[in-house]
Amino acid sequence: MGTDPNWTDDEDFGCNLDPVSQEAVTWFATMHADQVAPADQVAFRAWLRRDERHRAAYAEVERLWSGASELPIVRSRRRTKRIAVTRRTFGAGVLAAVVGAGTWTAYQQHPFADYRTATGERRTVKLADDSTVDMAGATAMSIDFSSELRLITLHRGEAYFSVVSTTSRPFVVEAAAGRTMAAGTAFNVDYVSDDDVRVTVARHAVAVRVGTEGVRLDAGSQLTYGRENIGAPQTIDPASELGWRDGRLVFISQPFGRVIASLNRWRQGRLMVMGSALAARPVTLIIDLQKSGNILATLEDTLPIRVVNVTPYLTLVFEA
User: Which residues pair with 132 in a beta bridge?
Assistant: First the structure.
């Protein structure tokens, strides 16, 4: 793999990364070029075997690219310009196009949803049955009320449901693979990913179901479910867990990746955690949403992390 000064159009991106991450990005571009020389294939495999950090860094680059490559703007550019993923096009030219001009936010907001909030926005929706929904930032949901069922589909984000009791129509919130069913109650659904949906009950109880598995969740309890399973209920303090409704985020021994996912709903630009070990690290933080613009400086002061600003729209967070 020879040195190519054109592998990226953004000098800051390359210069701010540590040497291992920079090598990983360059190797990724090399291996996704139109033609890959046999010598480069051999050298790449040797580079991966040489150090576990090489494999981890390359996996993170793949994760970053796979998360961005299916955005509509990337598909459109590939059709109209037939852009190849090369040293040059993988650099800031494509990356900035992916995350620039709010395209990531637009993609996440589900434009055909019935109700949406922008990043940093809070909104209360009154439903036809007089139930209410408090929506956190970057949240999207759809409503489907019938004579037999009150169905809410939470496409992404977080919402607090205050449900009016009725014996004739259950109230159901679908998020990813699970369903949360209530009668008259108050509960919160936090949809981070298909494998990370968290249900918190403030009043009375709900029933959570994934596939054939079902769990009753009482007030003051919380559980997390994924595509195929439901976690065990945990006793929590609803006032702390649902602090976003009062303008603050409270994280008590929460995985750093989940903290970042929550922050992405409240601040402009996208933060990405680069490393599974860092994403799993438990942290305790209290964040004033009115001051979320200063959160990166606070995180750097209190945690062993290093922040790399790729563009005004994308910031990578590495373990220091």
Answer: 126, 162
The second-level CATH assignment, the architecture, of 247-319 is 3-Layer(bab) Sandwich (3.55)
| Cα–Cα distance for residue pair 233/208, rounded to 1 Å | 11
The predicted-structure confidence for 168-179, as pLDDT tens digits, reads as follows 899 999 999 999
- Cα 200 vs. chain centroid, distance in angstroms? 19
Q: What is the mean pLDDT of the chain?
A: 80
For the cut 50, the answer to whether the pLDDT of residue 124 exceeds it is yes
Per-residue model confidence as pLDDT tens digits over 261-299: 999 999 888 888 888 889 999 999 888 888 766 778 878
Lowest mean pLDDT segment, chosen from 39-48, 68-77, 242-251 = 68-77
Residue type, 40: D
Using one digit for the tens of pLDDT, what is the confidence trace for 193-222? 999 999 999 999 999 999 999 999 999 999
Which helix (H) or strand (E) segment holds residue 209: the answer is strand 205-210
Question: What global pTM score does this model have?
Answer: 0.70
CB atoms within 10 A of CB 256: 23
> Which residues face 217 on adjacent strands?
206
Q: Which of the listed CATH numbers 2.60.120.1440, 1.20.1250.10, 3.30.70.1140, 3.30.465.60 matches domain 115-236?
A: 2.60.120.1440
Q: Give me the residue spans of the domains in the chain.
A: 11-105, 115-236, 247-319
DSSP 24: H
Dihedral, 57, 62, 63, 64 alpha carbons, nearest 10: 90
Alpha carbon distance 308, 316 (integer Å): 5
C-alpha angle with apex 312: 30 to 111, nearest 5 degrees?
90
CB contact burial 122-143 (16+ within 10 A = b; e otherwise): eeebebeeebebbbbbbbbbbe
